[in-house]
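Field reference: sequence -> structure
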Amino acid sequence: MKTHQLYINGQYTESKGEEWIDVLNPATEEVISRTPKGTKEDVDLAVQAAFDAQKQWELTPNIERGKIVRELGNRIEENRATFIDLLQEEQGKDYELASGEVDLAIDYFRYMSEWARRIEGEIVPSDRANENIFVYKKPIGVVGGIVPWNFPIFILARKVATSLVTGCTIVLKPSQQTPNTAMEFTKIIDSMDEIPAGVYNVVTGTGSEIGNALASHEKVHMISMTGSVQAGVKVMEAAAQNITKVNLELGGKAPAIVTANADLDVAVESITTSRVANNGQACTNAERVYVHESVADEFIEKLRHSFESLTIGNPRENKEADVGPLVSQDRLEAVEQMVTSAVNSGAKVEIGGQRADLEKGFFYKPTILTNVTHDTDIMRDEIFGPVIPVATFKTLDEAIEKGNDTEYGLTSSVYTEDMNEAMRVINELKFGETFVNRENFEAVQGYHAGMRKSGLGGADGKHGMEDFLVTQVVYMQYKNDKQ
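Structure field:
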């Protein structure tokens, strides 16, 4: 069993606290590692190290920072198999998704490294003679990066690569449930002499302790957090003490609208992928389907066949498994409770509806629910498991209205071969992302951001990178001897 340490100011160090957190393999329920339950004092030390290092890191030429960020991606690639195995062990991903996440993390470091030469300011005309107005883009400073358990290496890449290339330093808090990939990445950081001490730091522990200490710290200049709405509220409350900027990617309740003009095979394949990817534990997953009543029976039948073909198992033992475990016993019980509540409210189980028949692990069968109404909990609250409720609609107006009727606003999708329908839905849905005739997954060069309670700010591409920058305007007067 692995026992981890904190990483502060370029050195592995023991926590000031004496408690530990056990990390479980969700497929076997075995303890696979333990991490220190960090303290506020640990956070203070890490933030001070990041604060001190940031002054010099900001002065490092952009191109040099970009080379380092690219090399981090190269080093992950050299250890690709190790990261895939760790990811499957601690998080329960199937092999295809685990390898895809590691590859995406590699790509993200390389992509973000290319922004080193593209962080640009402006020259704005002045109203005064003999004056230039310069608009500078500068690093925001120390970033507190709070990483979730569902994509622990990819979202680490999002926060670390962007921080480092923009000239920020970072204090990272991995999820207490999935810290092993982050600690493996920390080995890479520790092996690279070109990364100054304090630029990257890791403090493990609980969100209530470490997350709050980071968010409320006066020397942290931005909190970049991915997690639940409830956790986001706590971060905002803590950050408000110092008016600290927050960048939040929170929950989702993505609607998938299937019109009468949809290619049902495309819709079924994409919605299946979008629902069971990561065992249903992604904020971008399709969470509810609205299908036109004229094609509902055919769609449900095809979707049922698609779900019937899925295999369940321990992804480390069976590379062909489509669906692995949920991350914890608590998550399993929460999904089970939501399905039971839906059935008690009149929903019909088309397939699944119960735990998988395996001796160990937190497995739940892929589940389709029909006869659900828009106002039930299963259609309004985030499920975060391999369960999809399906409702019907008569008009496109109705589908759009119900799709928008949610406190979330992260992702959405529409399936139709009619361009006019597609454009109407795109223009009228109120979500940060809309996917047309494809699965719900974003691109590194896009912009992953939500509306309403799905978050503030965003990630990926130019606009995500700019969240890590602040603007300084300089009014430069000069003498003109000719006047």
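Note: The mean pLDDT is 92.
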